[in-house]
Q: What sequence folds into this?
């Protein structure tokens, strides 16, 4: 007789073997009853009795608050022979590792008030009506990762800026993921162990929060029976946010006694987002390399100080250049610096070998570069500057999609393709109508 307990199969005549070595179509057999195991996202893919060892998939989303100046970003040609514009020139060494997409967006309006839709496809006010609650691309991928890494995702950036900054990462319950403020905080989160007293305080805090949640959930179940349908729906929305907290507590318990990875990287000092970009990118690469996380998001918002580049005017004011050439030149200088740092990040990923795949870290990491703003000067959220690098796709093109409103292709189609490449078995994401045509694996 086989008994199933705590994720492991025990057999009186056989030695213990891991339950997770069974495929998704395997069966639990007990007392003559066969129960099919459902598709569980957090279990590894298996063939036969042995798990397939392969490098994990990763996803990095890089976004800024004010988009890219169209005249310096978009090439005039499509296909493989497009010209590298001023803002694409820093990416020249990686030309065969990225794809540029024209005329993809979410079909939303609102200018700065719609920038937060970059990774969700919907405005926060409309998220409640969505099946997945307006969850962002990175957090959907993070759900899939679950507790396989210490941090399901890392969001780095600043809450400073117009209307709260980029606001790129959102949970199902409509809660914004607060960004990690700088490289020093990111380094300590990744590599610095708490002392024994702090660990005990953390354990006490986890236990207290767990008790509070148990009480809240118990009271909510009793209350739910006495509510009318509208109030019941409000309570369900509240409980969704409670479950976010519950999930985080489970992760905290799981990783509390597992040591953090060692590193020779020197703890950085925060110098402001502009000067911090190189260190932040290096730390994201280290987080991926050490498998501390497989999902990371970087928000470049209004805290980006143009003065650190020797520019006296502010980033936001320059984005509203009014077609004044001197202002455009300064704006392009800011955006060129951002693209230079992104290119350096891609080079860093390419330099890290991955023995499991006989490739490099970029081969297994999808790097999305873009913005929720198409043209800040005219406050439009269409024709978003979208670029995808790495991840094992066939790259090297400038792909053109229909510009006519009735034939527009949702940007979420690209996101659905990315999620499927990440390993999710799903046929939709937000406003998608299918996967993105023409995007093929290498």
A:
């Amino acid at each position: 007789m086989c008994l199933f307990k705590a994720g492991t199969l025990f057999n009186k005549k056989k030695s213990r073997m891991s339950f997770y070595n069974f495929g998704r179509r395997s069966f639990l057999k007990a007392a003559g009853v066969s129960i099919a195991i459902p598709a569980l996202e957090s279990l590894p893919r298996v063939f036969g009795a042995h798990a397939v060892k392969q490098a994990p998939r990763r996803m990095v989303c890089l976004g800024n608050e004010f988009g890219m100046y169209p005249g310096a970003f978009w090439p005039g040609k499509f296909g493989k022979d497009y010209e590298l514009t001023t803002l694409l020139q820093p990416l020249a060494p990686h030309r065969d590792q990225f794809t540029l997409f024209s005329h993809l967006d979410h079909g939303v309006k609102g200018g700065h008030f719609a920038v937060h839709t970059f990774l969700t496809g919907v405005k926060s006010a409309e998220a409640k009506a969505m099946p997945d609650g307006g969850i962002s691309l990175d957090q959907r991928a993070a759900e899939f990762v679950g507790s396989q890494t210490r941090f399901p995702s890392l969001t780095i950036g600043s809450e400073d800026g117009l209307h709260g900054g980029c606001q790129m990462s959102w949970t199902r319950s409509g809660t914004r993921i607060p960004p990690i403020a700088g490289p020093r905080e990111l380094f300590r989160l990744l590599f610095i162990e708490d002392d024994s007293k702090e660990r005990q305080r953390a354990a006490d805090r986890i236990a207290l929060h767990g008790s509070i949640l148990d009480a809240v959930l118990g009271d909510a179940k009793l209350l739910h029976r006495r509510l009318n349908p509208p109030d019941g729906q409000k309570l369900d929305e509240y409980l969704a946010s409670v479950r976010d907290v519950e999930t985080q507590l489970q992760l905290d318990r799981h990783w509390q006694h597992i040591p953090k990875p060692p590193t020779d990287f020197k703890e950085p000092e925060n110098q402001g987002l502009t000067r911090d970009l190189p260190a932040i990118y290096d730390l994201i690469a280290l987080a991926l390399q050490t498998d501390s996380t497989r999902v990371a998001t970087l928000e470049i918002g209004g805290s980006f100080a143009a003065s650190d580049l020797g520019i006296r005017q502010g980033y936001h004011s320059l984005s509203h250049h009014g077609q004044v050439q001197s202002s455009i030149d300064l704006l392009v200088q800011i955006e060129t610096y951002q693209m230079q740092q992104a290119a350096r990040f891609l080079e860093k990923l390419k330099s890290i070998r991955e023995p499991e795949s006989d490739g490099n870290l970029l081969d297994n990491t999808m790097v999305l570069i873009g913005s929720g703003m198409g043209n800040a000067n005219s406050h439009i959220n269409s024709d978003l500057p979208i670029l995808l690098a790495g991840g094992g796709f066939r790259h090297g093109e400038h792909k053109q999609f229909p510009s006519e409103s009735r034939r527009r292709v949702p940007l979420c189609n690209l996101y659905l393709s990315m999620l499927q490449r990440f390993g999710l078995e799903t046929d939709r994401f937000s406003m998608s109508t299918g996967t993105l045509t023409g995007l093929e694996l290498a």
